[in-house]
Amino acid sequence: MSGDIAVLGAGMHPWGKWGRSFIEYGTVAARAALTDAGIDWTDVHSVVGADTVRGGYPGYVAGATFAQALGWQGARVTSVYAACASGAQAINTARAQILAGMADVVLVVGADAAPKGFFAPAGGDRHDDPDWLRFRVLGATNPAYFGLYARRRMALHGDSVDDFAQVKVKNAAAGALNPNARYRKAVSAEEVAASAVVADPLRLLDICATSDGAAALVLTSMDFARRHGAADPVRIRAVSTVTPTYPKAVLDLPDIATDSAAAVEPSPHSFRASIARAAYEEAGIGPEELSLAEVYDLSTALELEWYEDLGLCGTGEGAKLVRDGTTALGGRIPVNASGGLASFGEAVPAQAIAQVCELTWQLRGTAGARQVAGARVGITTNQGLFGHGSSVVAVR
């Protein structure tokens, strides 16, 4: 398709708590992606950096930050911030530049050095900021609303704490096979149940950590890829960055307000489902064509929501997919073959890019012990705070 772009290189800095600058992590990932692509840094026409708001002033201009760290060479730069969707927005920005003929070779980089514990809002009083309000008015940390979503699934669909635990068991088994993962140890359902309660019904092992880490991609035009000797590269076929549809009548925490549906009927699809639908529509595929998916498992219960939002099963049927082994390595549609956030933790600007790195390696057939056999089509999906969609379709 004319709208395809090539993924020539993918690279990561292993995730963990390293105590160093996000700039260092991003530079390591960028150099790994350049090496993987067989591209010299001086051949890069554009750098798109996914921003972190925790890295001081350089964090807000990540494109220039990484370009300077790699050595000024005149490339155009762009910096993107969209919370957890920053990486997908950066990929989309790179894609737009390539398809518009502005650049043939674009380096996309995201990196973060996250605080210990849950994410708190930036300092200062901001009474019109929903993120500030949910902490000050509700006291709703991220794990608090993860727990509310889990309770909602239990009430509506009959999910159990063991269903949630099985998601962690599955993702930990995959993460144990991933050299870039922070947590590389198999976990049993009994260990999940025995871990500390954080936000009932969720335990410590149901919830993702906050991490340091980085991911990078070298994206090019299809013509450049062929000239460079890549006759059949992994290709990005769609990027969805849609917003919710008015009226948004179901509470979507951490946003603490809804629209009235008295005059206008709500969409039959949730915001998260609309993110995936837009990606499928642009790519010209349906969920039945997927080989694998990388989803945003902030908690075990939220992963089950994504199964339904992606159309892998009907509403309320997510837990059955886990119990049947459908979404495990070796199952019909492996989800989070990387190990997911359960195994990595959140390095916010990097995670949507890291998802595409995993699709790239899987579609190339180079994912090692966690390889999904015959992978040809993959999708990523996550959600940035307050209406940022994020989904990428990659094909081989």
List keywords for this structure.
single chain, 396 residues, alpha/beta, nine-stranded mixed beta sheet, two-stranded antiparallel ribbon, 11 strands, 37% helix, globular
Write a structural description.
This protein is α/β, with parallel strands linked by helices. The protein is 37% helix and 18% strand. It has 14 helices and eleven strands. The strands form two sheets. Strands 3-2-4-7-1-8-11-10-9 form a nine-stranded mixed β-sheet, with helices on both faces. Strands 5-6 form a two-stranded antiparallel ribbon. Strand 10 and strand 11 form a beta hairpin. The longest helix is centred in the last third of the chain and has 17 residues.
Low-confidence stretches: none
Distance between the termini: 12 Å
Helix/strand-derived category reads alpha/beta
The number of distinct β-strands equals 11
Binned, the helix content reads 25-40%
The DSSP helix count reads 14
Major β-sheet profile: 9 strands, mixed
In order across it, which strands form the biggest sheet? Answer: 3-2-4-7-1-8-11-10-9
Q: What's the pLDDT, averaged over the residues? A: 95
